[in-house]
Structures are given as C-alpha cells and as structure tokens.
Specification:
90 residues; alpha+beta; Alpha-Beta Plaits; five-stranded mixed β-sheet; 2 helices; 40% strand
C-alpha cells in the first residue's frame, strides 16, 4: 500500500471538485479524504494500490468539466491506519 498527499491549484472550489474526487476515489477503492483549503486549493490524502493512485492523479490533473487545474503538488507519505473508505472533510 502507498499513500499520497496531493494539493490541487486553480479554479477547483465551487465547481464540484470534491464530489468528483470522492466518486473517482471510491470507484478506485482508495481510502482517504478530500477537502477545500482556505487558500482556494483542494487537499487530497489518498492511499491504496499504486495503479489506483496513478489513476486518481491522472484524473485530478484534469478535474471535472467546470474546473481549471493550474497545478498539482504531490508527495508520498506514510499510509495511515485510521482511514475507513474515502470521504469529504469540511
């Protein structure tokens, strides 16, 4: 199992980005969360199989139709044991 911390920049709030990410992550069987940050970016922490994380990254680099992603920061982190599924945090 691998885990990633992802920050997505651009027009990513108010466009359904969190719900888009939630659907994709659940479909891929990932655990973790997605949340809006005060600076207008979206934070994602996800863990699971390598192929699923790569697919998530490819998907969030584009985002939903109404989003405009201008940049994505990614770093590998230690997997956590306290995740149960994937959720939106507020």
């Amino acid at each position: 199992m691998k885990a990633l911390h992802i920050i997505v920049h651009g027009v990513v709030q108010g466009v359904g980005f969190r719900y888009f990410t939630l659907d994709v992550a659940r479909e891929l069987g990932l655990e973790g969360y997605v949340k809006n940050k005060p600076d207008g970016s979206v934070e994602i922490e996800a863990q699971g199989e390598d192929w699923a994380l790569n697919e998530l990254l490819s998907t969030v680099r584009v985002g939903p139709r109404s989003a405009h992603v201008s940049g994505v920061e990614v770093r590998e982190i230690e997997p956590r044991e306290d995740f149960e599924g994937f959720s939106i945090r507020f």
